[in-house]
Amino acid sequence: MDLKSNHTAPVLTDPAPINKSRLGVHSGMLPYSRAAYSASLLLSIPRKKTGILDDVRSSSWLDAMKSSSPPHKKITKVFNNDYALSDADDAYNTWLVKYPSAIASFEQIANHAKGKRIALFLDYDGTLSPIVDNPDCAFMTDAMRAAVKKVAKCFPTAIISGRSRDKVYDFVGLTELYYAGSHGMDIIGPVRQSISGDHPNCIRSTDDQGKEVNLFQPASEFLPMIVEVFRSLVESTKDIIGAKVEDNKFCVSVHYRNVDEKNWDVVAQCVNDVLKDYPQLRLTHGRKVLEVRPVIDWDKGKAVTFLLKSLGLSDCDDVLPIYVGDDRTDEDAFKVLREGNQGYGILVSSAPKESKAVYSLRDPSEVMKFLNSLVACK
Ligand SMILES: [Mg+2]
């Protein structure tokens, strides 16, 4: 991602800068003290005085917001003729050569999975549920829930979502799974003594069913700051019709899918203005959502690695991890699997886009078919 501001505001390029400390948390940032941090920052870093909207218009904020929200579905409505439809289909079919359908290629995947232990990782929004106007209503269908339940009985399965862990659990409602919320910054996984020893933020806990689990929250020190930023963003965007700020515990999402496109720069400016006071936070783009999260060296890819280790499945030749997701944040997980030459990333997309995934699925209904095929294959 290439969000760059032309001043010293804490809107950082993605991926996040890698820090030297164990979890990437700058030691000077902890414990959280905004006043102390801001004072030292003001002394050490010159700041440009910001004019209204100067920052977001002169940077690539809006370009990134638009590219995160491709209007491909509208093309067929605007050009309602065979030629336009054929062009879109041709583009998608060409793209499928590079990212083959995981359904059409299922036999190949199944052959590769023979004698291996599959570990399944699933994003939630846009993968198991449709993207809807109101993020509070992103419900999965009963058929999808049944498919996820069945597949989780066959293979260890985890949901890794940008939502808070509690919220994604409320949507999915299955106890058979592991859940990682806040882009992997809030994980409940199986108990492993070695994991707890490796990660100081990993503690023994019990889940809602009283089962002993490992609770891993690498950004726990940032919680008071995130709460403060959430409140500031709610206040600063309250007059923008359609804007919605969502508290996802260790990150904050600012949804603009219901905001008139001519006001997207106002949304961007509000977020930029709030973030200027928080160099410890960074911004990433999802599908019609700006996401604010701590600057720590942790993402969905690291969450996959952590969960594989928790499950006792890391460094094993006979393990085949499969990660299914639709978002830019899922690319971190695709990258981990691709670079580790272990398993497959599967991108859910109905429009051509570059990805680190190996295979593709068009939409959640194809995800369900794929999950059912995995169960049948088992
Ligand atoms: Mg998603």
UniProtKB/TrEMBL annotation:
Catalysed reactions, as listed in the record: alpha,alpha-trehalose 6-phosphate + H2O = alpha,alpha-trehalose + phosphate
Cite the entry's keywords alphabetically. Hydrolase, Stress response
| Gene3D superfamilies according to UniProt | HAD superfamily/HAD-like
GO BP field? trehalose biosynthetic process
Q: Which is one GO molecular function term here?
A: trehalose-phosphatase activity
Q: Which InterPro entries match?
A: HAD-like_sf, HAD-SF_hydro_IIB, HAD_sf, OTSB-like, Trehalose_PPase
What's its EC? 3.1.3.12
Q: What class of enzyme is it?
A: hydrolase
Its pathway?
Glycan biosynthesis; trehalose biosynthesis
Cofactors demanded by this protein = a divalent metal cation
Supply the Pfam families for this chain.
Trehalose_PPase (PF02358)
Q: Does the keyword Magnesium apply?
A: no
Quote the function comment for this protein.
Answer: Removes the phosphate from trehalose 6-phosphate to produce free trehalose. Trehalose accumulation in plant may improve abiotic stress tolerance.
Family, per entry: Belongs to the trehalose phosphatase family.
Q: What is this protein called?
A: Trehalose 6-phosphate phosphatase
